[in-house]
Known about the structure:
Elements: E1 2-5, E2 8-10, E3 13-14, E4 23-26, E5 29-33, E6 36-38, E7 41-42, E8 49-52, E9 55-59, E10 62-64, E11 67-68, E12 75-78, E13 82-86, E14 89-91, E15 95-96, E16 103-105, E17 108-112, E18 116-118, E19 121-122, E20 129-131, E21 134-138, E22 141-143, E23 146-147, E24 161-163, E25 168-172, E26 175-177, E27 180-181, E28 188-190, E29 193-202, E30 205-206, E31 212-214, E32 219-228, E33 231-232, E34 241-243, E35 247-251, E36 254-256, E37 265-267, E38 271-274, E39 279-280
Parallel strand pairs: 1-5, 2-6, 3-7, 4-8, 5-9, 6-10, 7-11, 8-12, 9-13, 10-14, 11-15, 12-16, 13-17, 14-18, 15-19, 16-20, 17-21, 18-22, 19-23, 20-24, 21-25, 22-26, 23-27, 24-28, 25-29, 26-29, 27-30, 28-31, 29-32, 30-33, 31-34, 32-35, 32-36, 34-37, 35-38, 36-39
Amino acid sequence: SLNLNNVEVTRNNGINPGIGAGIYNEEGMLIIIDSNLSGNTAMSDGGGLVNNNASAILTRTRVSGNLSGGCGGGIANKNMGVMTLITAEVTGINKADGAGAGLCNQATMSVTEGSIISTNEAKAGGGGIYSSGSLTIRNSFVQDNTALDLNNNSVGLGGGLFTVADSSTTVTQSAITNNSAATAGAGVATDGILNILNSTISANFGTVTGGMFVMENGNATLVNVTMVDNEALIGTFGSGLHVLSGTAVLGNTIIANTTQAFNTCTNASGTITSLGHNLSDDETCFSEATDLVNTDPMLAELSNGARMPQLGSPVIDTADLLMCTETAVAHTDQLGQERPIFNGCDIGAVEWPGVNLYLPAIMQ
């Protein structure tokens, strides 16, 4: 085992075999606390760190400015590796010629407790995170990442998050915002199993799909999600959600785009299923009796990764109560507020806190 506390791992080069230029951990236990991994370059995977068939925990550690010729400019988690990031930052333009500029997960990974995955650039998809394994994102931020298409391979998918076939991903109480993609799914592109709960996907920009792109094998379930103001350069596949031939199931969810005239949702040969109590600003997403369509959600601007309902918003107290309280995770919103506050739960990722009234004392 190796414990690193308050250390700098910087400006290392991995040439042959060219993996894990900063740190290479194989079949060991690695703990890194209050440290920096920066400016490392690997010819293959994991510019900053490779965790190969091993265990690693990174706490309050920054991974920045690393480069890889393959997967994982910042970190690559491979084979049977188990990795946990706690209040970590993978940021500062980590770059990958392959996928997953910030994080490349091919095993089991958890990103938790206020971790930030930001300003990373991948040439082959997954600007922030690429996953072909098991991934959990909880109470964290995936923001300002870019999936390029400089390899001319028509990838450029998943500016924030790209999950491929046979992967399993759960996102709770998190924000995926301000990411961009050269093709589709600027916020999220998925070809695997994806569950998102009490989270926000907002202000992402893609060429053909801004918010979420569900691919051939994709199976996405969204409950109490706010997916708003995502943009597409070309409106063919919708600005919010496009289902190619996979499946999307949504409940207590907002999908709206107040900045473009494109359809909010599009469906090629897949399935979009409503569990009810959703809201859309047009008629392209939902058709259940309890869904609100052609309705402005009346949300505040993006702040701390969330879009708070405003006074008078139609999402207040109109969600399905069972969906938002049936588990311990479900009844806590994105910002940590227990649901419900008033008579019912709110549609979307966050509960409206109400209005504080000041009642002056009456002097006698």
